[in-house]
From TrEMBL:
The lineage of its organism: Bacteria, Bacillati, Actinomycetota, Actinomycetes, Mycobacteriales. Pathway: Lipid metabolism; butanoate metabolism. This is 3-hydroxyacyl-CoA dehydrogenase. Belongs to the 3-hydroxyacyl-CoA dehydrogenase family. It comes from Rhodococcus parequi. Residues 7-184 form the 3-hydroxyacyl-CoA dehydrogenase NAD binding domain. Keywords: Oxidoreductase.
Amino acid sequence: MMGTTRIRVIGAGAMGRGIAQIAVLAGFSVELTDVSDDAVAAGLDFVGAMVRRSVEKGQRTVEEAERALALLHRGASPTAPAADVDLAIEAVVENLAVKQALFTELETALPNAVLASNTSSLPITTIASALHDPSRLLGLHFFNPVPLMKLVEVIPGLRTDPDAVATALRFVEAVGHRPVVATDTPGFLVNHIGRALPTEALALLSEGIASEADIDRIVRDTVGLKMGPFELMDLTGLDVSHAVMEIVSAGFYGEPRLRPSALAAVRVTAGLLGRKTGAGFYRSSDGQQQAPP
Ligand code: NAI
């Protein structure tokens, strides 16, 4: 891609590792970083395994896989100074204070980079308000699992420079995904529209009208989605999806249509976050969903 060659990914969890994977496969050099060394190691292992599996599936040659993996590096640290990073993509915990503190350091450490947040729901303009120069920051919202979900929301904040938006759009197209420019409103486009189904499903469950499994089956069989709302919440992680519900609800001043659910909140308190902890609405093992608990 013209101009952008070196990417730093900050946060090597579910989203960061997926972003690193598609970026190296598209020929970008990627530094994967995290506050946790173990998370970086697990992320590097994961990308290696996924790329090698794609060779077994006949999707690319051994040479192509090796070329891509040679572009993947462990970064020195999330905020190590570097003048040659063109684009930094942040995929850390969904928490405004954490993201603002990180970007405040990144704007000095990476003087030539466009700064992108993979936030699901935090307003880009608010994250950017902590920066000396808010024009370099925008939202670059990938969906889970990153290699399969081709849609990416590109979200300019109110003070984002159009050149930064152009860089982000070129990057998304270069990795073979499909960008949509979304307005910086709570939940942007997809997580605002996408609240409807899980919110209603949680209301049906809490009112005892139907079980998780029945609601998921009906949505799969009749609406035709690949996953029902409870399956999707378990995949996303309830810590993420419930936080998004709270942020979108607050952003629209408590609009009743968008009310978060106590059923989800109590699971977050209990550590029943979904596949990442072995149980959420369903039990799971090796990342696969099984029977309801
Ligand atoms: P995750 O919990 O899998 O990974 C987050 C990683 O960030 C962890 O490895 C953690 O050690 C690291 N981290 C935390 N604070 C850090 C800091 N200050 N500096 C560097 N690393 C730090 O989270 P996940 O699911 O990958 O989500 C990341 C972001 O992507 C969140 O903003 C989330 O809202 C957003 N997102 C998540 C989606 C999902 O389905 N899980 C979908 C789309 C966006």
